[in-house]
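Continuing the series of single-chain predictions for the mutant panel. This is the parent chain; the variants come on the following pages.
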Amino acid sequence: MLAWRRWTDIPLLIVAVGSLPFLLLEIEREQLLPSDQVLLNVINVIVLVCFAVDYVVGLALTNNRQRYVRQEWVSLLIVLAQALVFVPSLAGFGVLRVLRGARLVRVAAVTVRVLAIGGAARQRGREQLRREAGNVALGVAALTWLTAAVAFMLAEGVGEDQRVESFFDALWWSSATITTVGYGDIFPVTTAGRLVGIVTMFVGISAFAVVTAKIAEWLVGSRPDNDVAEQSGEPIEI
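Parent structure:
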């Protein structure tokens, strides 16, 4: 069981955190291009399969199944919430399709899934946060990159006749903003969109500064003269 956790904790953390921004797009699913809807379906399947396999394998490996069910209820909630996404399209019940189409129901379903996946990410990320500062900073930058793209779409409007036609256009804007390049071909005009841009720039500057510092630390620490200095007890020259 411990060996399985060592192998799966980081991949599941990546899946959990990385999928959070895309869940918000479910609220505007009907306005998205077919390619973006396909992308959402693929992400939903990946999250469902990853957490379902992890839960079933963990349940099979544990010696105390009742304790496992009590401790891993968040993972089970994620599996159930993700499975319900596909019920309307698979079951053929018209009532379920109507419920899924209601905006309030979609918002409630997305909220449950965000809370469940966020809870799983929090549980699995505590130790990684303490041990892997550089990787965490890179992960924060990646999460901000995706979240900013989604928030930009929701703030500026998404659809064929809107300012943002597809998720990939928003992803391009997020890439230019988080790296502070700012090409200006796509830019926010709403107050909410500009606030998203400000937060994205600040997070990008901070996160990439940590990553750059870690790279510099690794490069300095890998110099041959530093290895000799460490062995002789002499101060390291930078």
